[in-house]
Amino acid sequence: MADQNMGIKFLLIAICLWTWITSWVLTASSDGLVRINLKRQPLDLKRINAARITRVGLESNVNDQEADVIYLKNYLDTQYYGEIGIGSPSQSFSVVFDTGSSNLWVPSSKCLFSIPCHFHSKFRARLSSTYTKIGIPCKINYGSGSISGFFSLDHVKVGDIAVKDQEFIEITREGFLPFLVAKYDGILGLGFQEISVEQATPLWFNMVQQGHVSQKLFSLWLNPDLTSELGGEIVFGGLDWRHFRGDHTYVPVTKSGYWQIEVGDILVANNSTGLCENGCAAIVDSGTPLIAGPTEIVAQINRAIGAEGIVSLECKNAVFKYGYSLWDSLISGVRPEIVCVDIGLCSYNGSQHVRTVVENETREGSPMGETALCTFCEMIVFWIQVQLKQQKTKEKVFKHVNQLCENLPNPIGKSFLNCDYLEILPDVTFTIGNKSFPLTPEQYILKVEESCSTVCVSGFVALDVPPPRGPLWVLGDRFLSAYHTVFDFGNLRVGFAKSAK
């Protein structure tokens, strides 16, 4: 009898467990959410240096139909991407989910003469039973070139749902050789129709119109844990409470086209930077890892955290490593034109016997090569000579030389800093909706593994947009990985809450 009662008890427990699991699965599959896991592509120094974000100007070749476009980027430093499918049966593509643009594009099987196309998945229209030809040619401009193709129509699979009759662009020419190493095939724009090329309807809008989601919003979580295999998740139709902590702070979209909001003052170590005290525009952009803003503020931030352009940084490194040796050589009467040869930074008459030693030394932790070191050495020698003729003291000479290094131009627009000092750097805080959103050094610095060392890159770059659209900030992945973000299409607002690991 006891065995029989025990058996009944186990049966009841099993039935309860089965009922709970079944109800959970049904709820999870019918909650109106469409989830896409995101992968993370590691950054390298070449891609960071080649990446561009520039304001639209007379030089940009943007046509009248794209008059609402404010800035251009070339996606070469984009990290996060996920999978979608196009056609019937579905053809798989890896795409960047980009809130800073509005078109969907992937390489076409007709892309025959662009090398990058041959290293990525290509859409083959003849294999899809639901394909419709549109054929309108188009061109998409970026910060350092353009891609071109034509419009097509087909079903697009996002998660478990299929968006019917979605316009997209088949790319027939990719002008960027760095796309060769990109792990994504194309871009899925999540912005508004106003900035869409040829005013094509964005996929997200069709997803709402066709009733695939229960709420007119999507949310983005970029995993702050860089050691995790999961890069993040984008959820269409709602949000996942496991992705954030606390409540969201919502602010209205101030101008349709981009997900554009208003930000207040930007603080460095609780000190105001001034320019945005009365408000600045900001665009929330998941298609760039950087935070771009007015030169006036970005320069203040980078100065406060000790970040400098690569030319200035390497010039100062050369002064630190070799400056006193150059001083001693000049004081002892060594001819200026051979000082750099004597200490092994330059070759002489084609001889390479001393340069090889320096080359091996400078490859560790330095993005510059031995040719640049030789140039820096010759500049420093000249600057020291000028100061010696004015009979300046050693301390004043090197103070002046370092100032000259600081004034050197920064052609690639990125700023670098010493990775050893991250713990003592200040927070940078954005004011949004009258609330503070601080970024720690670990959040606003990009760490890039290069050879056997780590290079640290400031996440802040300059972007000067004149009134009436500027001053303008672009809040990229450095900000979005710190704060879970809700893009509320139904209420035209954006919400931020602290990201969960």
Mind sketching the topology for me?
Layout: H1 2-29, E1 34-40, H2 45-50, E2 53-55, E3 71-73, E4 80-86, E5 91-98, E6 104-107, E7 132-142, E8 145-158, E9 161-174, E10 186-189, H3 203-209, E11 217-222, E12 232-236, E13 244-252, E14 260-263, E15 266-268, E16 271-272, E17 280-284, E18 291-293, H4 295-304, E19 308-309, H5 310-331, H6 336-342, H7 355-362, H8 370-389, H9 394-406, E20 415-417, E21 428-432, E22 435-439, H10 441-444, E23 445-450, E24 453-458, E25 460-462, E26 472-475, H11 477-480, E27 483-488, E28 493-499
Parallel strand pairs: 5-10, 6-9, 17-26, 18-25
Antiparallel strand pairs: 1-4, 1-12, 2-3, 4-5, 4-8, 6-10, 7-8, 8-9, 11-12, 11-27, 13-28, 14-17, 15-16, 15-21, 18-26, 19-20, 20-24, 21-22, 23-24, 27-28
Helix pairs in contact: 5-8, 5-9, 6-8, 8-9
Give an account of the 3D structure.
The longest helix has 28 residues, at 2-29. Helix 6 (336-342) crosses helix 8 (370-389). This protein is α+β, with helices and mostly antiparallel strands. It has helices at residues 2-29, 45-50, 203-209, 295-304, 310-331, 336-342, 355-362, 370-389, 394-406, 441-444, 477-480; strands at residues 34-40, 53-55, 71-73, 80-86, 91-98, 104-107, 132-142, 145-158, 161-174, 186-189, 217-222, 232-236, 244-252, 260-263, 266-268, 271-272, 280-284, 291-293, 308-309, 415-417, 428-432, 435-439, 445-450, 453-458, 460-462, 472-475, 483-488, 493-499. The model is unreliable at 15-30, 58-67 and 350-367 (pLDDT under 50). The protein is globular, with a radius of gyration of 27 Å. Strands 4-5-10-6-9-8 form a 6-stranded mixed β-barrel. Strands 14-17-26-18-25 form a 5-stranded mixed sheet.
